[in-house]
Structure formats: structure tokens, C-alpha cells
Amino acid sequence: MSSSDVSRPAKPETVFDRDAEWDALIAFACDTRPGAGLAVVSGRLRHGKTHLLKALTAALGGFYFGAQQATRAESLRRLGDGLAHYTGTPPPHRWRGWEDAVDALLALGDQRPVPVVIDEFPDLVRQSPELPSVIHSAYRRLHDTGRDNRARLLLSGSALPVMHRLFGVASPLRGHADLELTLHQLDFRQAARFWGIDDPGLALLVHAVVGGTPAYRPYVGNDAPSGPGDFDAWVCRTVLNPQTPLFLEAHHLLQEETDHWDRALCHSALAAIASGCSTQGQIAESLGAPLTDASHCLALLQANGLLRNEPDAFRPNLIRLRITEPLLAFEHAAVWPHRSELEQQDAAEVWHHARPVFDSTVAGPHFARICRDWVRDFADPALFGARPATVAHGSLPDPARRAGPEAEAEVVVRGRIGTRSGALLSVGVALWNEVMDLHHLEHLRHLLDLLAADGEDVTHARPACYSGVGFTPALRAAEADGQVVLVGLDRLYRGE
Questions:
Q1: How many CB atoms lie within 10 A of CB 51?
Q2: What CA–CA distance (Å, rounded) separates 252 from 245?
Q3: Cross-strand bridge partners of residue 309
Q4: I need a surface site. Which of 221, 281, 317, 322 has the fewest CB within 10 A?
Q5: List of E strands, 19-171
Q6: d(CA 291, CA 299)
């Protein structure tokens, strides 16, 4: 649908960031053209969909209905009561079914464009599978009768597999949405501002625990660490504190997202991935489960957005699995082995034993992930000669090491040079807790030699070193000579 020149409300101060999302929703809701519109808003739990949609309806005088897991009759009754309160009219005596309810909702747009939100739409469809077809039929009737209706219906949900199915190829609503909007986590820079943290090292540590989920700050009473020296105490008084909602959030998140499947297997799979297993075979071996069972569990976690596939930058057929929610990685790597102890011991004592695991298994990989995000979202395209197309972890067998570890690069950048897609732009090493020196540059040069010997064009590939604690003067001198790109925390959070 096209936008119009009607006056549009500014984003409320209570909505942090989300400028692009707000503009898209306002453009949809304020469109004055005749014809009922349909929007789909998706996103995982705790990412702020409800807060954003309530702000939209409040700003435009729209109608909001939050669905719950309830029977069909109760949902219809609740919706009727809410609609009566909104219109100032008596509740309907009794709707015959969803046909009457949908017609009543769309009738709100007979006089003006008005946003009509049904939040957690999948909860209604579970009890009333016919609802998508009912909505489709209602829109067809409006179109066929030529009625001047400008309802702007927004269907929102956090059950991602259900949302994909409801608007997928086989759905009656397929192709009818004028807007499809997905809310993601705040990125690492947005998260630092959201938590009010200026120190980039502290911001990264906090992000390694709670990620960019907006709901987690109110979950700890807006308690943010006062400085780098307060981080350990902050962990103990928030995520390790049984009196805060964040204490059991990882458990609740898995419970809500996995729809009552085998949660024990899912927990164990996440623990295996958080400890370093990354392929389906490694995870199945760690679980002591058949590959088919492990694959089913992993597919479920992927469908719910808790895991993602990442092809190796040098061997695309090698697929690694990464946990998308930092809190789940933190829980299953650093806290899960000590969960029972937290009920008997002081949190500070438990954290003393868990902190080394956090530094090596959680903070290190998370720092590498942030470096990849920086290259993709914030680095000047001129830094590596072209705009990145992919940024991934890469590994290669090293003949010099024989049975030893593979040669790895945590930040491998590919892009387009001229007509050549997938050109290698950079290989980089990312180390969270190590001052980097010339031998790290030599490692990258060795890796480039291996790639060249394997037939890769490394002509345009720039070595890059990413460090959480800094670089030696010798490596800085190599940077000044144009031999290497250096990226520290200040550049990650403030530079290009």
C-alpha cells in the first residue's frame, strides 16, 4: 500500500530505538487509500512487539486485543468485551463465530484508517484453525461489495513456526499482507545504549549475558553494572539471583519456544553447543542419542529461532550451529553445570567457579560474533574494498599440523569485486582476552598461503586482527604500513 501525506504521530519516548519499525507501522496504519489492509508482525518473545503495537494503537486511537491460550468461546467473549469497551457500546449478545467477530473488527475502518491489532494470533488459531480462512473470506467480501473500508488489521505472533505456516505457501492468507515486519534483538550498539553503558568492554560482557532483548532490563529492575569492576557483582545480583525473573528466564524461554517437545534433550543439545560442539554429528555424540533424534531436536530449535545454521567460510558444505540467544548460551555453558549449587551456595562462590568458563567458552565466541556483526553492519565498505556479502567463521585442515587443530579465522569476509561474487576480502582472527602481536599476523598469512594453495584467489584479501584488550606496538606499526587491519573495542562500538 502506498503512504499518504496525513499527519503522523512521532514515536513515543517510551519506545527505544525501533525507528524503522515505527515508520513502517505508521505508514501502513495511516494509509488513507480505500481498501482494508493486512500486516504481519513477527518476532521472538521479549523483543518488544507488544509494547510497540500498543504504542501504535495508543498513538492512532486504534484497537488492541491480546490473545491468550484459551478456548474458542472464551476468546470470542474477551474480544467482544474489549471491542465494546473500545466503541462504548454494549457487548454483542453472542457472536455466531469468528465470522461475526472479524466483520465487527473490520467495521472499525468504515470511517477512517484505523489500526486493529490481534496480538499472539497463533494462540487463537490453535483453538480455531478456521480463522485464517475466515479472515480471507471477510476481505473477499469487502472487495467484492466495493465497500469503502480502511481497516488496518495487524496480526502479530511470537511462535515463529506457526507464523510462517499461517502466512506460508499453503495458507489462505498467503500474498495478502501489505506489510511483513519482523522484530529482531537490538544490535550490540543499541543494547549498550539501552543499558546505559559507555564502557565498550563492559557493554560486550553484559551483551554476552543478556544479548539485545529489551525485556531483560526491567526483569532485573533496571539494574545495570556501574562500571567494569561491578560486572561480577551484577551477574550475582541479577541472572544468578533467584529473586529476579531473569534467574529462570532461560528455562522459561525454552519451555515457551519448544512447544512442549522433549525439553531435556533440547537443554542437553544447547549445553553441547555452548561447550563447543557445532555440527550435528558432534552434538549427537555428546548427547549419546541417535542422529535422527538429535536432528529432530535441532530442527525444532532452529524453527523457533534459537539456533541458526552457519556455513563454513572456506568449506560451505560444513555447517555449524550457533545459539542465537546469548542468555541461552550463557546459561548452558556457565550456569547449567552449577544450577543446583545456586540453591545451596552463595551466588558469588558459584560465579567464582563459573567465571573462567564464561571467559573462555562464552565471552570469547561472543566477541567473535560481535566482530562479524560489526563488519556486516558498521564497517566502512571501503575498509576491505567492497561491501561484505557474507561474514563467517572459516577453518581449513593444516597439512603442517597433521593430526593437530585446523587453521581457523573467526572473521572471514566475502563480497563482490567487479563481476566476481564471493571474492575473498579479508581473513581475521578475533581474540577476546589476548593482546595481539605479529605472530597473529603470521598466522593469517599462513592461512592465506593455505587458501592460495587450495586454489582460492587471495589477491584482495586483507589480514585483520580483532582484540578485546589491544595490540602490541609492533602490530600497530604493521597497521601503519598497511599490512593489517586492527579492530579494538572502541572501533567496534564507535568507529567504522
A1: 17
A2: 10
A3: 321
A4: 317
A5: 37-42, 63-66, 114-119, 151-157
A6: 12
DSSP annotation of 359 reads: I
Domain span(s) for CATH 1.10.10.10 in the chain: 188-369
- List where CATH 3.40.1350 sits in the chain: 379-494
Say if CB 43 and CB 183 are below 8 A apart: yes
Task: State the average pLDDT over residues 274-294.
Answer: 91
What would the grid cell of residue 49 be? Answer: 512487539
Cα dist. 340→240, 245, 337, 345, 351 in Å? Answer: 12, 17, 8, 9, 13
Residue that has been written with the C-alpha cell 504521530 in this structure: 9
Q: b or e along 258-292 (b: 16 or more beta carbons within 10 Å of the residue's beta carbon)?
A: beeeeeebbbbbbbbbbeebbebebbbebbebeee
In DSSP terms, which residues pair with 485 in a beta bridge?
464
Q: What residue has cell string 569492576? A: 229
pLDDT > 50? residue 132: yes
Residue 340, SS3?
Answer: coil
Query: Locate cell 553447543: which residue?
Result: 273
**Would you say domain 188-369 falls under CATH 2.40.400.10?**
no
Q: Which CATH architecture has domain 19-182?
A: 3-Layer(aba) Sandwich (3.40)
Classify 64 as helix, strand or coil.
strand
Q: Which regions of the chain carry the CATH code 3.40.50.300? A: 19-182
Tens digits of per-residue pLDDT, 34-88?
999 999 999 988 899 999 999 999 999 999 999 998 999 999 999 999 999 999 9
Q: Apex CA 187: angle with CA 226 and CA 166, to 5°? A: 130
Report the alpha-carbon distance of residue 18 to residue 242 in Å, rounded: 31
Rounded Cα gap, residues 421 and 6, in angstroms? 43
Measured CA to CA, the distance from residue 120 to residue 156 in angstroms comes to 5
pLDDT tens, 141-190?
998 888 889 999 999 998 888 888 888 877 888 888 899 999 999 999 99
Task: Name the grid cell of 376.
Answer: 556486516
List residues bridging with 436 in a β-sheet. Answer: 471
The type of residue at 131 is L
Contact predicate 493/189, CB 8 Å: yes
Counts for the chain of helices (H) and strands (E), in that order:
21, 12
